[in-house]
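Each lists chain and fold; for instance:
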Amino acid sequence: MDAMRRHVLAPVALGLAVVAAAAGAACADDGDDEDAAVPSGTTVERTAVPGLDARATLRGRLTLDGAPLVSEFLGARVIRDDGLVAACQAAIPAVIDGEYSIPVSADVEVRGCGAPGAEVLLWAYVGDTYVYSNETVEWPGDGGSATFDATFSSAAPEGASTRVTEVKGLLYERDGTTPLPGGTVVEAYIADTRCGITSLRYADVTEGYYTLIIAGPDTLRTCSELATVTFRLNGEPVVETAVNDLGGGSRGHEINLTLR
C-alpha cells in the first residue's frame, strides 16, 4: 500500500471503518524519527510545528489471540480523564512479529491528546478488521516513553475502546474555499457539553484533513446517542451539524466544516 494511504488510514468507532485520522502524519515506520513528522513536499518548517518534543513514545510487544501480532498499521487513541477521546498517533507504523514503537502526540501538538491523567489505547488493522487493545497505559508524560505490552482479541475486537462517533474532513473559511491553517482547533458540542476536541495538525497543510472523535455516554453521560452535534472552529460556529450515532457508518462521516 502506498505512502499516502498509510497517511489516511485510521479507525473509527469500534474499529469498523477507515478515516483520515493521520492525514499528513509521518509515513516512516520508525516512530523515533522526528524529521518524519512533516511529510515530503510540505512547506512547513520543522521548527514551526509546536509540540514535536512533547511526543511520547510507546514500545513493547503485542499479541493477537496469544500469538505475536503482525500488522501493517498501528495507531493510538488518547482517553482523557474528562472523558474526551482523540486520535493521537503521530505516525502509523507496522507491527513486526509483535514488536512495535509508536510516537503519540501530546496536547500541545494536537488538542485533546496526551496530558496528565490520560490513558493511551492502541489499535491495529488486521485482515479487514480494526482491533483495539484490551489494556490501556497511562500517558508517560510529555517527551516521555513507556514499555506497553498489550493484547488483542479477534473474538472481542473492540477491546477497551468505547462507543464513539468519528468524523473527518476539510476546514474552510466563510467563503467555503479558503482552507484554514494548521493549528485550527475543532470542537464538537452537544447542547452545552463539549464532546470532542482536536486540532488540525501543522503537517496537514497540504492535505488539510482533521479527524475528530465525538465521545458517547460511555465516557460522558451528557454526550447522548443520536443527539445533534454542532461544531466550532477556534471557538467560532460553523454551518454544518452531525448526529452522534456512535457508529460512523462504513467509512466514517466525512464532513467539511465551514465557518458561519
